[in-house]
Amino acid sequence: MNAPRSSGSTVIPCMRYRDAHAAIAWLCKAFGFSKQAVYDDDGGGVAHAQLVHGSGMVMLGSVRDNEFGKRILQPDQTDLHETQCPYVVVQDCKAHYERAKAAGAVIVDDYAEKDYGGAGYSCRDPEGHLWSFGSYDPWAEHGG
Q1: Beta bridge partners of 56
Q2: What is the mean pLDDT of each run of 10 residues along the chain (144 residues)?
Q3: Is 132 helix (H, G, I), strand (E, B) or coil?
Q4: I need a labelling partner for 96 at 20 to 30 A (CA). Which of 26, 75, 114, 134 fits?
Q5: Domain residue spans in the chain?
Q6: Measuring CA to CA, which residue among 79, 97, 80, 77 is closest to residue 88?
Q7: Domain 14-141 falls under CATH 3.10.180.10
C-alpha cells in the first residue's frame, strides 16, 4: 500500500560523493538544485544532504566505509558504468543544457528534441555520476 503523498516525489535518488561539499555547490550552480538540508559529519564530510529541484529531491552524502556505503560503488570504480540515472524534469531544457555545459558538465548525449515529446540531454557531473534532464514530464502526460 502506498503512503499518502504530502508533497514532492516519493522516489528519491540517493548518491555518494568523495567531496560531497564540492558536489553540492556544483549541483546547485550547474543544475539549479537548492539546498534544503545539509548535515556535516564529524570528519568534515557530509553525513546527509537534501537538494531540491521543483518538487523533486536527491539525497546525498560523503563516501563512507559503513554497511550502506559498502553497497555503493563510485563511477570511477566501474569504468563510468551506472545501473541507474536520475532524470530531472526541467522547464527550459535548452537553457538548462547551456548552463550545465558552462559549468563544466561532461555532455554524453547532446541536447535533442525527442520523438516522444519534449527535449533532453545527458551528462556527467565532476565525479562521473550520470544525469539525464528533459522537458518531457511523464506526470503531465498521464494526468499527474
Answers
A1: 53
A2: 60 95 98 97 96 95 91 92 93 97 97 92 97 92 57
A3: strand
A4: 75
A5: 14-141
A6: 97
A7: yes
